[in-house]
Amino acid sequence: MDLEQNLLIELKRGNKEAFTILFRKYYKDLVLFGGSILRDRVKCEDIVQNIFLKLWTERENIEIEKSLKSFLIRSVQNSCLDELRHKQVVRDHELYVEAFNYFDCLDTENYVLYSELQDKLNTALEKIPETYRDAFQMNRFEGLKYKEIAERLQVSERTVEVRISKAISMLRSYLKEYLLIVLAIINS
Amino acid sequence: MQNNKIDILIARLLSNNITVEERKVLDDWLSESQDNKKHLGRMINLWQSSSPSFNPEEINAEHAIHNVHQKIAENERLSPKKSLKILVWWQRIAAVLFIPVMVLMGYLLSRDTDFNPQTAYQEVFSPYGVRSKISLPDGSSVWLNSGSKLKYPIEFKSGSRNVSLTGEAFFEVRSDKKNPFVVHTEQMKVEATGTAFNVEAYETDTIVAVTLVHGKVDVDINGRRKLDMQPSQRICFNNQSNKYKLSTVDTYKWIAWKDGVLAFRDDRLDYVFKKIGLMYNVEISVKDVDIASQLYRATFEGESLDEILNLLKLSAPIRYEHSKRVRSGSGAFSKEKIEVYKR
Questions:
Q1: One domain for residues B66 and B49
Q2: CB–CB of B131/B144 below 8 Å?
Q3: Which residue of B has its CA nearest to A121?
């Protein structure tokens, strides 16, 4: 039986520590998930806190069909949508939310949360040789130009170019389906 | 190949750079199969998680869990099976209302050089666990924290308004530019005209400090350093290192005690327990070094000591050991002692 199942059983028995552990594990990611529907951080934090409060007070009666993660994501999604309907606000810059009825295609069971994605990216970055990684990070995360990196590392611009393109091709093979994110981060 | 092309279209859709023709291609592709819809859902998921709407650093999970624990405690207090607890709570209020405010009103003659020997003085002492509010003859107000003593003349003579303090007090000084208001402590002289500020000068502490809320004060430490303070500044002097630090602070944290509120903003747990001990007249010592240095954020208002201890226990891995109160030869009970250990 996995750790989370055990924590859930403990939670149902009224163990507050199990509750705290689950809260710490999911809180930040769920608030950020809420942020993709509602732009208001404070509101999102309220929503997630209320969901956990309900999880505690109704712990004996709550039926969790699939995983806890899926249950929590769905709860946040529903509360955020209620809030949207209540306010009759639609995020104009994210028309795809309505256009594709995307909640139907969203797989809550396998949803990749913010910190899970960070972990994946970091793991991939760690696999790359340091010299490639340094050049890549200076360019993509710190926004330095090839020339500036060359000066900092005391190598030619051509070397910097080679290192960055090697880093990208390695990341591409490690991340595969997550490639889009790398693109997103690079473009932002 | 096909998939790569679609992914580029999806990326354009998500970043709002898609043309009408491209959008049509994407729509057709989506209607082809359920799997394609799933693929879009997956891409949207990754897009959302990689570009959060707000800064993840702004989300404070510890603060949040504290909030939730507090709400849980409130709910449980209100539920009917806990009526006994409410009674205890009411008893506590009654006790606070009827606590004899042991204000020692001694008329003393002082030979202090700063004080005129002909003047009659009044001395007010706030016992541990009790706070007092005093109105001075010039209309200024002083909140005296527990374990603190304030001495002031029954009547202020023209020229200056001198008071002396050991412990902690918050001053709201009535404006009078001709007659400056001076707080004397063992090591400091704080001079003000019309302003609000907090002074900490407990004899047992190695640190003395002044926090200025508004107005202007001059601080003189040991007659050697003279400093002008600006609002929202706090000056902190360490007796042992003989160094002082001037910083800009959230003044609320330093004056909240006067309203019976304990406000902690990333403070070490040993400091948290020290302040709680002062307010509730118990001696709390943290026995584990790791735990003592952990930072904590919380605001307590109106909770009982037991409630505060429980809330702290829920959000930090600690346990308490209470020691029995010992009766001394004179028949008085010793202070309650609580020791904090790592769980």
A1: no
A2: yes
A3: B50
| Number of domains composing chain B | 3
CATH code at B74? 3.55.50.30
Closest residue on chain B to A115 (Cα):
B49
B183 and B147 in one domain? yes
Residues B233, B176, single domain; the answer is: yes
Selection from B198, B244, B196 nearest residue B220 by Cα: B244
Between chain A and chain B, the number of residue pairs with CB atoms below 8 A apart is: 117
CA-based nearest distance B233→chain A, Å:
29
CATH number of residue B177's parent domain: 2.60.120.1440
- Best of A32, A55, A74, A77 to substitute, by most chain B Cβ atoms within 10 angstroms, is A32
**B303 vs B331, residue with greater confidence:** B303
Secondary structure string (H, E, C) spanning A69-99: HHHHHHHHHHHHHHHHHHHCCCCHHHCHHHH
Of the given ranges (A65-69, B80-84, B178-182, B259-263), which has the lowest mean pLDDT? B80-84
Given a contact cutoff of 8 angstroms between Cβ atoms, the answer to whether B213 and B197 are in contact is yes
Does one domain contain both B163 and B187?
A: yes
Q: Among B254, B271, B287, where does a domain finish?
A: B254
Assess B49–A contact: CB distance below 8 Å, yes or no: yes
CB-nearest to A107 from B38, B54, B56 is B38
* Interval B71-80 mean pLDDT: 72
Which is it for the CA torsion B252, B256, B261, B266, positive or negative?
A: positive
CA distance B216 to B175: 11
Please identify, among B254, B275, B297, the residue that sits at the C-terminal boundary of a domain. B254
Calculate the average pLDDT of chain B: 79
ipTM of predicted assembly, 2 dp: 0.79
Low-confidence spans in chain A with pLDDT less than 70: 1-2, 86-104, 177-188
- List of domains in chain A: 3-104 (1.10.1740.10), 114-187 (1.10.10.10)
Answer yes or no: do B72 and B46 share one domain.
no
| Mean predicted confidence (pLDDT) in B219-224 | 83
Q: Strand pairing partners for B237?
A: B208, B244
Residues B230-245 have pLDDT tens digits of 899 999 888 888 888 8
Give the residues across from B73 on adjacent strands.
none
Same domain, B208 and B233: yes
In the numeric block, the tokens 């393109």 are attached to A165
- Parent domain of B42: 2-56
Helix, strand, or coil here: B252?
helix
pLDDT tens profile A132-161: 999 988 887 777 889 999 999 999 999 999
DSSP state of B134: E
